[in-house]
Design goal:
The protein is an alpha/beta fold and 191 residues long. It is built from 7 helices and 7 strands; from the N terminus they run βαβαβααβαβαββα. The longest helix is centred in the last third of the chain and has 25 residues.
C-alpha cells in the first residue's frame, strides 16, 4: 500500500484532484494533507473527503523529530508537493529520496528557483515573450526546482495571453496530467 502525504500551501485544487483520482484505488491511500498555512483552503477540501490534515509552522516543518513522527504516525511512504511553498529540509529529501515529487507551473529549467511560484511564474513567462509554457513534474532534491524531471507537458502562449490566461492554461494541464503521472510513477514501482 502506498500511503501518500500531500503538502500544500494554498487553495488545494490539485490536492483535491489527486484525492479524487485515488479515491477508489485499492493500492493507494491519501493518508495526510499537510500545510504550512492554517487558513489554506486545501485543508477544507481534504476534510470534505475525510482525509486527515495537519498544520506545521515553518519552524516546526524544519524540526526533524516532529515531521518524521507525524509522517510515521500516518504511515506515509510517498510525498506529493502540490503548491507547497516551503523549501524541503535536507532530512526529508534524504528520507524520501525518489519518493517525493513536485509539480512546477513552468517548463523547467526555465522559470524555476526561489520565489518562482504561482503568478510570479506566469508573469515571468509573459514578460519573457515565451511562445509556450507548461508544467514540470520532478523528483524533489536539495536544490529548489532542480530535481530530475519525470514528465513535462506544454501549452502554447499567444501574444494576447495575459498572465491570468497563462495560469488558466497551466492549471488545465495540472488537472489533466498530475494525478496520472503520480499513478504511473507508483505503478513503475519506484518506491
Amino acid at each position: 500500500m502506498t500511503n501518500i502525504a500531500i503538502f500544500v500551501s494554498g487553495s488545494g485544487t490539485n490536492c483535491e484532484n489527486i484525492i479524487k483520482h485515488f479515491a477508489d484505488d485499492a493500492n493507494v491511500h491519501i493518508a495526510l494533507v499537510l500545510s504550512n498555512k492554517s487558513d489554506a483552503y486545501a485543508l477544507v477540501r481534504a476534510a470534505n473527503h475525510h482525509v486527515p490534515t495537519a498544520v506545521l509552522t515553518k519552524a516546526e516543518f524544519n524540526d526533524e523529530a516532529k515531521v518524521m513522527a507525524l509522517l510515521k504516525a500516518h504511515k506515509v511512504n510517498f510525498i506529493v508537493l502540490a503548491g507547497f511553498l516551503l523549501m524541503i529540509p535536507p532530512f526529508l529529501v534524504s528520507a524520501f529520496h525518489r519518493r517525493m515529487l513536485n509539480i512546477h507551473p513552468a517548463l523547467l529549467p526555465k522559470f524555476g528557483g526561489k520565489g518562482m511560484y504561482g503568478h510570479h511564474v506566469h508573469e515571468a513567462v509573459k514578460a519573457a515573450g515565451e511562445k509556450e509554457t507548461g508544467i514540470t513534474i520532478h523528483w524533489v532534491s536539495d536544490d529548489c526546482d532542480a530535481g530530475e524531471i519525470i514528465a513535462q507537458f506544454s501549452t502554447p502562449v499567444t501574444d494576447s495571453d495575459t498572465p491570468d490566461d497563462i495560469a488558466a492554461k497551466v492549471h488545465q494541464l495540472e488537472q489533466t496530467h498530475f494525478p496520472e503521472v503520480i499513478a504511473q510513477v507508483l505503478e513503475k514501482g519506484n518506491l
